[in-house]
Amino acid sequence: MTAVASHSFSGSARRAKLLLLAGGSALLCLAHPALAQTAPQAAEAEPEADIIVTGSLVQRNGFDTPTPVTVIGAETLSRVAAPNIADVINQMPSVRPSLTPTSTVNLGSLAAGNYIDLRGLGYQRTQVQVDGRRYVPTTPAGGVSISSIPQAMVNGIDIVTGGASAAYGSDAVAGVVNLRIDSRFKGFKGSVQGGISNYGDYENFLASASYGTSFMDDRLHLVVAAEASQNGGIRWLRDRPWSAKNPGTVSNPAYTVANGEPRLILTDNIRQTNVSYGGVITGVSFTPGNGSAITNILALPSYLKGIQFDTSGNAVPFAFGSLVTASTQVGGDGANGIADSLGAVPVNRYTGFGRLTFDASDAITLFGEFSYNKVTSEYLGLASAHQMSIRSDNVFLPAALRQTLAANNVATITVGRSVLDNARTVSNLDIETINALGGFNAKLGAGWTLDGSFSYGRTKNRATTSNNRITARYNLAVDAIDDPRTPGVVDPICRSTLTDPTNGCVPLNLIGENRYSDAALAYVNGTGFRLWDIKQKSAIMTLRGSPFDTWAGPVSIAAGGEYRELSVKTTSDPISTAQAFFGGGTIPYAGKVTVKEGFGEVMVPLAKDTSWAKDLSVDAAVRVTDYSTSGTVVTWKGGISYAINDSIRVRATRSRDIRAPGLEELFQAGSTSALSVFDPIVNDTYLVTAANQGNPNLTPEKADTFTAGLVLTPTFIPRLKLSVDYYKIELNNAIIALTPAAIVDRCYSGTSPQACPLIIRGGTDDRITRVLNGPVNLTSVKTSGIDVEAQYWFPIGEDRINLQALVTYIDNTSIFDGITLTQLGGSVEQPTVAAVGGNPHWKVNTHVSYVNPGFTLSVAARYIGGGAINRAYTTKDLDVLSVNGRVYFDLQGEVTLIENDDNRVALFGSIQNVFNKTPPITGVGGYGTTRALYDTLGRMFTAGVRFKF
User: Fold this and answer.
1) Which residues contact 721 (CB under 8 A, 6 or more apart)?
2) What is the pLDDT of residues 686-742, one digit of tens each?
3) 191 in helix, strand or coil?
4) H or E element that contains 108
5) pTM of the model
């Protein structure tokens, strides 16, 4: 592998050079066709019309706002032809596709969802809106899945790529994604499409229909829509050739701190040394006085080393490969942990939407809206393993092995075994979302307007998990002996049954594969559920107008207030409540947060059509928010937009933004466990109770955001728009969950005094009795980079060529937890699934379309850069442990079959990832590659029909 190139310049000089380089490159790429074009000015409308967007409360066009805004129009949505709008948004370079059906297969709380992650700062720091209003969350953590929003009537998307909390409130740290509804649509339109992967899986289907009409002399408008979509998922990751090779990273046995060898090696055919499908002996403990326990397979005595159990439960040799460690090897026997994983979660989605708009007069418009959405999914849990403790007299062990164990005073052996055939969980998700909205728009005269609305939303998110081990029953069932009451007959029985004959225990045979009885599995495994009942009520009113004019034009203001109430009630089954399943479970909890907000924004023009300025304006916004849990916080924003002439505009913003803690972070009841901590007060290490739960003392995260950019609309290149923007976000008091040991250490070392309230002492010796192992405001995150957006089109006779380029350069992403600084910029690392992750330096999305009245043809190229697997590694590591990026080409075409008056029928088709480019092998997270960055589906074919009457 080749190392990622480094840049010798730094700081402001580096940013200036990058701005010039990115802007100049995009200008040259898009301007070249225009320089060769001598045709006269075309009269056609631009391919993506200018649309009022959500960059501020004072409405303006996206290229004119101080805060950068990317607009995804109806043409782009049609061109990509994705079964879910989230697939289009996730292609934007400013978005990290962290949480999709292909990347959340090991995170049940977010599975089957599509959560947008702007800047890679975590999905909870991106606010999602529908028509400029908050939508009800999908989870108590606060995220809104795009899959929970009806999409049939969405005709555009606005992405605010900068801090916007002063305008829109909490969560808008990285920006806002707003889905726009076509509420005045007339006619009947729809589409039907289907798709499949190059490997014959991930079958997907979408059917959508919308109808709009008007009554009462066009004063009453009705819009209704329905949609159904499915994708079949990918059952095994091994169904992709790159993953079937079981690629990833293994430890390098030759590595030492001094010799410069890389600590890890990227390779194929990785197997586990401590797990096999029938079981492999990995550890041993002796009877008291006959030796200490051995927990490393490589240190086992000769009579136990290299013994596994075949399908029939016989003790046979375990083949070791190369580069053998205590847990991994290359080649040989052992479980195939990567290829056994789930490739993609299947998702079924059904939605209904209706809106009624009534123009009560020329000045007053009333509206009501209702949406219903249901998402279901059934998928396999993790391909996990278990290290079983088996007593030496277990009846299911081969007789010869039992004799050997007895002869060597062995009390128990540890057997590493896959759970694929007996305890791989099956999860069923049922997520139902409703959202009702009513409101008005009023024209008050003299350019003043008043808007108000009230919304009620509710999500019932239920997860049912079957084949779930019940810990106490498993421990009894796996401890099986030959019934001493029937000598001479092999008669398996649970040891516990001898002293408790009515306990119902059924002995479980996990020596070998599929050798257990159905009755044993029925005894050991159970079904649990978790239900989140989330409700949101929101009332908002906004006054807009112009109180007076300056010498440069009218001053525009917006002011208003908002009330929001968000609550959750979580319930679960009795076994989960008692934490009796092998993986614990959800303990019921409930909580509510009320929010009161007042906000205002003003735009003041300072110059207009002067010799030194085409126009100059400043923008300022402030929002005061009172949380029932954490008190009052103030967010603000200041911006400037300076058009030097018709061709050059400069813009900049500075803002303070926040993210309030989610309901789960505040109120989760969690679970308890016993963990060891070192107590410096008594100078002793001992076990304490770790209470894994929410933290009601959390305060909002605070971010300082700066953006500055240049917008070019050169008159000598008509129809070209180019923007280049620098951004820098510094997030403080970010919420993170620590271990009890880390909490105690940070409190008493003085590193993090805010951790001290999480420690509870008691008893006569005042020792620690309990540590609240919940989230705390401890982390700081920084990220910075440059965005480039360019649009250009030119006519060719009656036809036209559209070009667009979106480029993001990520200069830095880092996390500081008070002790350790982790650099993630220019890396493909994924420390956690749902929070801040690595981002390559470069991301690019370009497309060119040929548009004819009878057909269109589009080619897109998407580039996701490479980087270091982990930037904490040494220079020698980075020479080896870095990967190259990937370029994906997409092809889309559409042919019009019927077009007359307002009627149109067209066939379309697309091929995503035309050349079936496989992802780079990074080994991140044990899935071979970094699923939050690269395409793991492969080539996808889609075909369908669109119609409008």
Assistant:
1) 63, 711, 712, 713, 789, 790, 791, 792
2) 888 888 788 898 999 999 999 999 999 999 999 999 999 999 999 999 988 777 888
3) strand
4) none
5) 0.88
